[in-house]
Please model this.
Amino acid sequence: MSSIKVYVPTDTTSVSLGADKVAAAIKQQAENNKVAVDIVRTSTRGMFWLEPLIEVETREGRIGYGPVEPHNVDALFTAGFLEGGDHPLRVGKVDDIPWLAEQQRRMFRRLGATRPTSLDDYHETGGLKGLEKAIHMVPQAIVDEIKTSGLRGRGGAGFPTGIKWQTVLDCSGSEKYIVCNADEGDSGTFADRLVMECDPYSLIEGMIIAGLAVGAEQGYIYLRCEYPRAHKILNQAIETAYAEKILGDSVLGKGKRFDLEVRLAAGAYVCGEETSLLESLEGKRGLVRAKPPLPAIEGLFGKPTIVNNVLSLTAVSDILATSGGEYQALGVGRSTGTMQFQLAGNIKRGGLVEVPFGISLEELLYDYGGGSASGRPIRAVQVGGPLGSYLTEAEFDTPMTYEEFTEIGAVLGHGGIVVFDDTVDMAQQARFAMEFCAAESCGKCTPCRIGSTRGVEVIDRIINNEDREQNIELLHDLCDTMDAASLCALGGMTSLPVRSAIQYFHIDFEKEPEVNP
Amino acid sequence: MTVKPTILTGDIQDILDGLKHKPGALLPILHALQDHYGFIPSVSVPMIADALNISTADVQGVITFYHFFRTSRGGKTTIHICRAEACQSRGSRETETYIKQKLDIDFHQTTDDGAFSLEPVYCLGNCTCGPNLRVCDDIHARMSKERVDDLLTELGREAG
Model:
């Protein structure tokens, strides 16, 4: 009798919720019951409220059970879960769960389906198609394909990727670099981590394609050190890619070189800013550089450099495998393709939602998210990381595109959505925004370095009801200075959460100060 | 648990010799040293400067810029508590206060018995399941007070 396949995820979230212990319990119980079970450690589906979600291969497809804790395993065996038997944790055929079925997963199409470091699984699911095509194309044709797609950088700023690539291609000289920005520091975002932990070859493939497109032979993945599991998986995948001649002196045996190395960051949020990242890669303090010169012209070690986000590079593999035109047909206006929305914080059904641009926040929060995890009303939502505006219900119908969000004075950023219920104190959130900026400022420019510290002090005075009106005016003044005179987005956008908190949640700044006993 | 080998300049030199040829070698070197010792030993600073042909001030400047690098031994176990927004929305401020009270230390401090150090971290990327903590390379999710108690007991036992 052949063994029954049981899939158990192996990403950070699932493991943090006990997936390894569940896998061990299943193995033990199978041995006790003398049934042949093949435990396959796949990646996650990105439905985190169900994790650890285990899936059993049956005639009807993969049947899921979740969230499974080790102590449930006994009962699952009794319920006959290996044949898809009924149990309170049974969620049915996983592919049919509407939350998943209604998404349009492209960048994340392998989520939960494959073993992350298996190159065979990657190949069998259409991997390397883009690279196999690109290796026969002239560089300009690759860049043109990206331009046609309308792909905009997924890291936050939304700069057209094709234009960046054209700039690097047009630079003379043979020493150029491809740098992947994997310093995903925004709270509420985990999409880069999911790609690196679940589908690392799609990133590697995208980076090689970028190298072919602009004539670069060296790539670096600048990875935050808060992602130890992604680090391990990426290094394993890179090792395999070298062994299989996908990386190295002759990519796919066609004579073109591309080398790739992961470099660990060291906990500085500002290094997610591309010029600070480059300084850090060069082995320096991560001080932001003034632009121009653009990194595309003078980047790493002063050479022309593409700095792209993990997801931009993953999208490249997809675009080359299909076509720029097909990609461009998705989305709305100049926000083309699909976007990775990450439902996080106080949300009932949090996880990774990949859909074309244009979906509303309301659909994401309620149709996908199911409201708050606490069951209380959602009061505030921060979109786009710690430098994004706080929004209220009045903005929930805004279509999620770069343009529409700019219109309402907010940012889409990297697509992170952090949900707060009605117990949140928005004056404290505003204070935290300034505190975070003070902790993470690289210190190069005064408005950010000093302004953020003064910002905390001013907000404390407002909270303590010391000359409230004057201090609110002073805070706006300070925000103006930081906006206008900071070198990068850290100082320049800290005002967004601060001002939006004051504007939409004014009542939280008018409370009686707490008296400490 | 953190391994704490004796600091030998020969070992440091081996680490330097293995990495100094890399372009932009300083961060990889500092990571390797911290992996090995749990912190960056001060004796290594002039050695790094020498290997990379930069000043000791440059090395020191880089070490102090990055939150992750530490210049002294921490406790046997370092607990990183996520302070970012997604964890806040799920009660991390309370979890943070609870752990600080329970261990009777603040951030960047070590308990008197040398068992635990506490460090803040801004986001572990596990944002649907906060409050999150990191211990070594493990992330611990949904850290309610009860789960914090269980974890500290478990860690105390392992270290004991």
